[in-house]
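Forum: Protein Structure Q&A
Topic: Joint prediction for protein chains with partners

I've read a bunch of threads here and the consensus seems to be that you should model interacting components together rather than docking separate models afterwards. I'd like to see that in practice. Below is the full input, 907 residues plus whatever partners are listed. Could one of the regulars post the assembled result?
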Amino acid sequence: MIRLRMGALLSAAAILFAACGQTTTSGAPSVAPGSVAPESVAPESQAPAVKEGGTLVAAMPGDISRSDSALIDDSNSSWVMNNVMEGLVGLKPGTTGEVIPVLAESWTISDDALSYTFKLRQNVKFHDGTDFNADAVKVNYDRWLNIPQAYIDAEYTYYMDTVLGHGDKSNLESVTVNSPTEIVLKLRAPNSAFLLTQTLVPFAIASPKALEDGKANDPDFTKNTYAQGGPTAMTGTGPFKFKEWIVGDHITVDKNPDYWDTTNAAHLDSVVFRIILDSTATLNALQTEGEVDIAQTISPIDAASAAGDPNLQAIDRGSSCNLFQLSMNQTHKPFDNLKIREAVAYAVNKQALVDAFYGGEAGAVVADNWMPVGTISYKPLDLPKYDPDKAKALIAESGVTDLSFEFWYPDTSRPYAPDIKGEFEALLSDLEAVGFKPTPKTAPFRPDYLANSSGGKYPAWVLGWTCDWQGPDNFLNTAFFGYRDRSDKTFGPNEEFGYKNDAMWDAMDKALKTTDPAEADQLWQQAQDLIRADMPTVPLVSSKPPAAAKAYVKGFVPAGNLTELMQTVWLDK
Amino acid sequence: MLKYIARRLLGMVPVLFGLSIVLFAFIHLLPGDPAAAILGQHATPDRVARLRAYLGLDLPLYEQYLRYLAGFLQGDFGESAITGRKFVDEFFVRFPATIELTAAALLFAVGIGIPLGRFAARHVQRWPDGMVTVVSLLGISIPIFVLGLTLQYIFAVRLGVLPASGRIDPRSHLDIQTNFIIIDSLLAGRLDVLLDGLSHLVLPAIALGSIPLAIITRITRAAVIDVQNEDYVRTARAKGLTERRIDDRHIMRNAWLPVVTVIGLQAGGLLAGAVLTETVFAWNGVGRWVVDSIHNRDYLIIQSAILFFALVFLTVNLLVDIGYAFLNPRIRYA
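Posted by a regular:
Agreed with the consensus. Here's the joint model:
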């Protein structure tokens, strides 16, 4: 696991260099060692007719988990806190990979790629009126390195664990204050993905006074009011500031009148993030006058309704960071046979899934890789297209006569599979049509389905992955085929798929560790080719979760990571 | 009467104690690992092991139970394994919402169900009785989820006369003190918010109250039919009393007992939360929260919540039994 984590830490030059090489966005800053980051890239300026004021009500499909940005790893918490808290760096609005300066004006990276010297903005205040400076940054980084063990054991610190590590296991060797406006972060080993990881919400800088007053480091979590919506919760420097969190109901943030970036101050007076679990109820609330102004995610079918309603607008996020696949475990027959796995790939009609369950191309794209388009080092792999005759021929060539197996699906739909039961039934039908004899089975998603699938108990099942960050390591290694510590205490192929290919792992392992971007890219490409040849699973679709809003909501800049900034939003009414 | 109440209150203790053991056993019989449930797609063998140790799940079952019991007796009802928050903090944010919804649903069910039942009994075997039967059948047959979404679509989306979801308009910026919208709006002197809160109650109350309405209607009808054929009712008529007086003083006084029993049972059940109504109307009550806790194997929350529901149920039934003594003076509790 440590190897896996360190691999993730060192991961992908790809992530960094994809940030440089991405063609989907413009203005990506150069952050190679020895360089200086450019001036801040502010969000795009608004049209002159912007109206100030008003309260926007946003529907969210679940509650935040905690009100401490360091202790969250879910998209709901990230969305709310991305509007209240800021880090040294951030993502250019509308992108998932372009790093821009935020609380840091600029930075330099030493030639050995170990030291990051940040020049901090001046005259910035936290929401409680205290000063933002290098000491405040150090307090935060020191806190993350020494977070109470109880929080680690309780699994509140996923991103701290996987990105930074703790104590002497951390890749962050030291945090040194040079002056009130300059701080140096020194790594133990080069990590070209370091800056990208620091754009994640858990690495936002909080007011040290608020942390202390809210007992943010109390090992007894029940005393930690900072993390439980207490008066000092979520005290950052962002364009909005925390007002209240009514657990299970809503979170309210108010405009920060003293926001440091005066050209990009919020237009709205406040945003209320309302929790509505049911997708139909969300659409009803959106269609009702005076209820919800924007829904963060709606089902693809409802997006079509929204697009046809003159009072609403469907919002195409344009990109995704997920993959839905038909998985197979090679320790179960008949999936130990390559031709059988290829037959499955030819048997399933992916385009039909997109058309029937995702509202067409607006809602999803047919997958042609084990990661979505836009991921660093992505290449089209020309995966098998729907061809039942070819599938039958492959089955005949395989020599396998017993085509029966258990085929599993979970009881709950997923963000990348809005009607997972319906999609499963379509796949079941495709497999039966070419001669397979699958027995449909189901289990509760948590904990049974996840535990059983990851433990290698299922021969075939449907599941997917929503990325932590958009790098090849997160999909190919962390989620799918990276070798890891197993339940039998050995290090080897992921038990979930039983897929052993030492050359594939070797390529991935080297890609994770190299700091040469060209070499990393080549190694990731090589890994993809090897996986393609083995067809361990069948990638199906990558969904683009649509949003919807009232027609009068303007200025919303969508992004595939669903943590959009609301400071650019205004109400044209 | 006081001795009776004291005896009943004391009697709750062994009931709750026994229930806690049965609950604990059943919860731990649920398949699946809570640690794996919490970690979801981030679950790895060592993370699962570490979380299990943190949650005390690697201890022997009897030791886990004793730790829970010791905490319970000291007023510590445990923390959520998911959020880390104390049970009381999570529960009492949501329970006021459930109380308000339950009260509204019962008001709807009782306010319409009893008159409807009486009306049907007065016209037994005739077309008004048939109509009431149809209404009752509809109430009990239409799934709450379907009814709720339909009401939402008609009255909120199409007609725009009622809100679709939630407890108040979040733009009202009400200062939440008690989590009872009615009380908080009165404390803040906000009549506008009070009216808004009441309007938000209408649709979920109808959806949630549809089944109790059907049941109360049928029970009232049956109880009234039973009583109205008694000798003393015929005697009252023979004495020349008006039908209104006979209805109120002789029929209903005796028909109330089974009706009150049913109302008590319904109230106890509704207070345990209404997961479907809460989901459709984004109503922040305890029902959905407890069901999610079961899905997530949040053991301490499940245990404490169900014990609390049991306490509520026992209390409501005690109140119903006390109510009998007032309704029927012949009933005396020693």
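Chain B has a mean pLDDT of 86.
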